[in-house]
Amino acid sequence: MAMRGSRLIMFLVLLYTYIDYNVSQSPHIIFIVADDLGWNDVSWHTDEILMPNLDTMARAGVILNNSYVQPMCSPSRSAFMSGYFPFHTGLQHDVIGASQANFLESKYKILPQYLKEKGYATHIVGKWHLGFCNWKYTPTYRGFDSYLGYYVAAEDYYQHNASNGYDFRFNTSVLNTTEYSLDVFTRRAKEILTTHSINTPLFLYLPFQNVHAPLEVPEIYEKKFANIQNRNRRQYSGMVYALDEAVGQIMKVLDDQGYMNNSVIMFTTDNGGPVVSGANNLPLRGAKTTIWEGGTRGAAFVYSPTYLHKTQYTHNGLMHAADWFSTILGAAGVDIPDGVDGLNLWDMMSNGSNSTRQEVVHNIDDMYNNSAIRDSRYKLMFGNPGRYNTWYPLPGVDGLCQPVSEITDLPDVQLFDLLEDPGEHYNIADQNPHIVQRLTDRLNFYKKTAIPARYPKGDPESNPDNFGGVWSPGWC
Fold first, then answer.
1. Given the DSSP bridges, would you call strands 202-207 and 173-174 parallel, antiparallel or unpaired?
2. Are 379 and 422 in contact (CB under 8 A)?
3. Which active-site residues does the annotation give?
4. Which CATH class is domain 25-358+460-467?
5. 279-299: b or e for each residue (b if 16 or more CB lie within 10 Å)?
6. d(C-alpha 399, C-alpha 436), whole Å
7. Is 23's pLDDT higher than 90?
8. Where is the Sulfatase N-terminal domain (predicted)?
9. How far apart are CA 262 and CA 23, in angstroms?
10. 18: pLDDT confidence band, cut at 50, 70 and 90?
11. Is domain 365-447 classified as CATH 2.40.40.10?
12. Of 22, 332, 362, 465, which has the fewest CB atoms closer than 10 Å, so is most exposed?
């Protein structure tokens, strides 16, 4: 009996040692970014959308209810990777065009470079959109061990053409294929997981193409939503469902290969949904490209079966796109570099503590001449918030988009109480001059630190015809 008892104790000691060893190691981090996913395009906000895999993780983890991104793609991605507000890197205006000699400058050390110093393997599968005119701005020259994806944006899902040039690569080589991009990305992610040594911490960055226009999806997914008569919304919903299925396949491999108990899954969109392309942001106002809530409040969550100590709830703490940088480093046990704008919110996510972010600067755009800032309750905006200024319903049941009258006569100063009025219906600036002044002072503080937006004209040297019809580095 004593022998059996000692064996049991030894077994328990070994078991707890094994568990403690796994948890004490730097976690594998899977960072998933959906492209152009609107606030009302996730199943924890609407019953119309089907995403069983993402929904399960979101509800089992922590839904981030006040996670803000930039109004458009490149600015958000620059914040994810650098930890800086885009108005501190010159990327606050619009997106990086394919023919522009524009980029996230190489003086900014980015996320995978810090993680590699901690012993991480680092891989990216999907969209880059942070510049490619010189090789030094491309992923495998900036800390990623491998890259499969495309450099620019808005390309065809099958032909992989964007702005009259082909754009699909594996590492630095052109990858010729007419396969649906999501299938290529899913297979590559699974390949990384099955060939990687589980004892080495892994950072897998998955900035998927779905659900950005053009609206293209295999018919089997579109048929899933035959009840939606509007074709754009039907295709868009099918693209969301296809994305979810891809994530489900990747999560199964994580589980089968033994990663899951030592992994953290992080998910976000890169900007609000484009209402002209089937997306929806209700009950929020505006859309992609605007500094309304519908353009900047992003659907997001974090999930882990091991590292989250408070789960199955929605956290209302403030978060900015730049905070993903510092939070991922915090989860990995890496010291946050001095000077970055991103805050380490890992304690908020893992323990349910209050957010240390007290305010969010939505943008300071000296070319659009607009800006906005939010504190825990109030949001102040200056200038025209963007092209889409109203509340956009779901496309009509008759198969046509419901017409919406744009609001054009907007005051230059607008203040909203987001706790009482998250849909930004009621401008209360005139009634609250002291709040306007307080937030103006804070915004002016940030404006003093902003640098001019860098948005050069297209360079004819970029022409894909100079590179065999392919968008390629080597012209700046």
1. unpaired
2. no
3. 73, 129
4. alpha beta
5. bbbbebbbbbbbbbbbbbbbb
6. 43
7. no
8. 27-334
9. 6
10. very low
11. no
12. 465
